[in-house]
Amino acid sequence: MTTKGRPPFRADHVGSLLRTKEVHEARAQFANHEITAEGLRAVEDEHIKNVVKLQEDIGMGGVTDGEYRRAFFHIDFLKLIDGVTATDGGGLPVTFHSHTTDLQFKPPRLRVDGKLVRSQGIATEDFKYLKSVVTKGVPKLCIPSPTMLHFRGGRSGVSEEAYPDMDEFFDDLQRVYREEVAELGKLGCTYLQLDDTNLAYLCDPHMRENAKKIGEDPDKLPSQYADVINQSIKSRPDDMAVCVHLCRGNFRSAWVAEGGYEPVAEAMLNELEIDGFFLEYDDDRSGDFEPLRFLPKDKTVILGLVSSKLGELESKDEIKRRIDEAAKFAPIEQLALSPQCGFASTQEGNEVSFDQQRTKLEFVQEIAQEVWG
Predict the structure, then answer these.
(1) Comparing C-alpha atoms, which of 116, 118, 123 is closest to residue 144?
(2) Which of 140, 248, 288, 363 has minimal CB crowding within 10 Å?
(3) Domain extent at residue 87
(4) Phi, psi values for residue 317, rounded to 5°
């Protein structure tokens, strides 16, 4: 549960932020072999310093690197695990829905072709740099949930030669994460977020049918995934707070899934051995607050009531009214506030401006101060 100085914070944010023009240009130059990996990293370093200062100036308790080193919130991390391959454009076409149109997107395809091994730190160097430039607040690292390596393909996404038994796949996946989390803890990471679209996708009837088509039981997956996450973070030190962010898709202000949390809420809120949940609640696609009745007394829900998909600022009175509505199902001292998702889960970013992004973060901070003090 939220306590003073320990994550999650009353005013928090999901993690990714709009990339600057210079970061976009450097990534394009690197892709065209015009600059080295070291040259790209130098540009990223400079602009991470700036985005850290932005968050600190606003007063955010958790401070991220904006995910400036990533093209995708999940693929850049997962493909660094030995045994995982990513094929550009090789995934199934996905239809994203926005408030104005539909978008077709074919993300890279992840496949497990060999035994999963962590032969090097995955996000450790990124965290070390983040920690070195944060002067206020708590350096917050966001990484994909381990379930992201399973849900899209299920059994068909994992080599039967490498893993004839799927239990062995999950054992190795969990071990890789435990090794990473343990090293992050040694480096001083006290705030870790796992980004998980799968639990939210299991709220959508169409996605539940898709899970059945790949041989999975959507009624059992929430508990199975809770256990995978629990096993993956067993190595965390006592001072590391862990939160899970649920997302229904976030690409250029569009989403994939819809549906309230009821199908996953009881298992997710009670069985996950974590400190908090970032839950999207910015519009009707996320359902009502009634699933929060399952929230146990030792966990926090960070209400994603402020849209990161739209630039227009919400009504402060309406946000406060919705916090009061949520408090009918969970104690207000176990609630907090954030934008509904990151501003740039992929490098393209959402259809909002830098000024609108800053205003939204300031808005979250201002409301949290007025509601919780």
Answers:
(1) 123
(2) 288
(3) 21-372
(4) -60, -40
> How many angstroms from the chain centroid is the CA of residue 51?
18
Distance CA 197, CA 200 (A): 5
> Tokens at residue 218, please?
């959507």
Cα 11 to Cα 194: distance, rounded to the nearest angstrom: 18
Residue 156, Cβ density class (10 Å: 0-12 exposed, 13-18 middle, ≥19 buried): exposed
Question: Residue 16 and residue 174: Cα distance in Å, rounded?
Answer: 25
Compute how many other C-beta atoms are within 10 angstroms of the C-beta atom of residue 128.
15
Q: Which two tokens stand for residue 108?
A: 């890279």
Quick check: 57 and 51 in contact, CB under 8 A? no
Task: Please state the separation of Cα 148 from the chain's center in Å.
Answer: 11
Q: How many CA atoms lie within 13 A of 67 on its CB side?
A: 28
Residue-wise pLDDT for 167-212, tens only, equals 999 999 999 999 999 999 999 999 999 999 888 888 788 888 888 8
CA–CA separation, 68 and 204 (whole Å)? 30
Q: Helices 221-232 and 166-186: crossing angle, nearest 10°?
A: 40
d(CA 16, CA 361): 12
Listed in order, strand segments (DSSP E) in 168-319 are 191-196, 241-246, 276-280, 300-306
In a domain, 1, yes or no: no
- Tell whether 10 is covered by a domain: no
DSSP state of 220: T
Find the CATH number of the domain harbouring 160: 3.20.20.210
In a domain, residue 335? The reply is yes
Beta strands in the chain (DSSP E): 62-63, 82-87, 94-97, 102-105, 109-117, 138-139, 141-144, 191-196, 241-246, 276-280, 300-306, 335-339
The domain total for the chain is 1
- pLDDT tens track for 58-106: 999 999 999 999 988 788 899 999 999 988 754 444 555 455 555 555 5
Compute the CA torsion angle 155, 157, 162, 163 (nearest 10 deg).
Answer: -20
13 lies in a domain?
no
